[in-house]
Amino acid sequence: LRTGDEEIDIRVILDKKFRDDLEYLKQLPLKTPAGASISLSQVATLAAAEGPVMISRDNKFRTGIVDANYTGRPLGTVVKEIQERIAPIEKALPSGYSISFGGEFKDMQETFMQLLLALLLAVLLAYMVMAAQFESLLHPLVIGFTIPLAAVGVVWILLLFGKTLSITSFLGIIILAGIVLSNGIVMIDYVNQLRSRGRSMHDALVEGAKTRLRPIIVTSITTIVGMVPLAFDRSRSAAMAGPMALSVIGGLTSSTFLTLFIIPVVYQYFDRFGAWIKRAVVRMID
């Protein structure tokens, strides 16, 4: 319909009783460019069949979307069960067809990759600062061992409370990395001070662990106690932050105690390794 400069598209559709009658449709008249009238059956073959109501495309590929909502269960668990159910269907797909997951699951995967990159960048920057502070490339690596020690506690507490590694719990791991590194720095820095005063490595490690035991435990307990209300708050507003608080609590609990036993052992091995490298370099120069 044209009204002045405006054009309005109009869609004309037959009544349903005529649309379902193939014989009627075959006799529909069509006008040729020459002005003659012919029936639709002369230029088309009509048959009843099933077809898509709408064709969707993604990146130039035809797609069929199946979506659903879920409540009360982790997204990763739901997707894993779906993958197990559709595995036989996926194997039987003809060439050129594939099944992929999108929506919230795709967003979660992309967010995890961004958080992992943020964690690696944070650890790298911390290593650079510690290397400059300690004037050593090996001592920051010793302190970096506190992060896997904290990961032990994160896995343990998530399994204990039936939680999964989610975006919020991963945020807790990033927060945890900075806290446990500071605990390691406190102890290793004091050990280096004792060794610079002439103490043997063994005595320096024993005294360093004993002297720094109290401040490390106090700072860890303070953080853990501060996270307890958030971890066990059952309100809807705090439900998302609960896994983050649990990650911090579990990681600090394990790293606080394991640091005092594991880090001195790792320190000795790295110190011997550094001494071996120095001797090797001196022999090469000589």
Task: Explain how this protein is built.
This protein is mostly helical and 286 residues long. The chain is 64% helix and 6% strand. The protein is built from nine helices and six strands. The strands form three sheets. The protein has a two-stranded antiparallel sheet. Strands 3-4 form a two-stranded antiparallel ribbon. Helix 4 packs parallel to helix 7 (167-196) and helix 8 runs antiparallel to helix 9. It starts with a strand and ends with a helix.
Q: Topology, pairings included?
A:
Elements: E1 2-3, E2 6-7, H1 16-19, H2 22-26, E3 29-31, E4 37-39, E5 56-58, E6 61-63, H3 75-91, H4 103-134, H5 139-144, H6 146-160, H7 167-196, H8 201-231, H9 242-285
Helix pairs in contact: 4-7, 6-7, 6-9, 7-8, 7-9, 8-9
Number of helices: 9
Proportion in helices: 55-70%
Profile the largest sheet. 2 strands, antiparallel
Kindly provide the radius of gyration, computed on alpha-carbon positions and rounded to a whole number of angstroms. 34 Å
Low-confidence residue ranges: none
Specify the overall morphology. elongated
User: Which structural class best describes the helix and strand composition?
Assistant: mainly alpha
Could you spell the SSE succession in H and E letters?
Answer: EEHHEEEEHHHHHHH
Mean pLDDT: 84
Number of strands: 6
Tell me what portion of residues adopts beta-strand conformation. Answer: 5-15%
Largest sheet strand order: 1-2
Distance between the termini: 96 Å
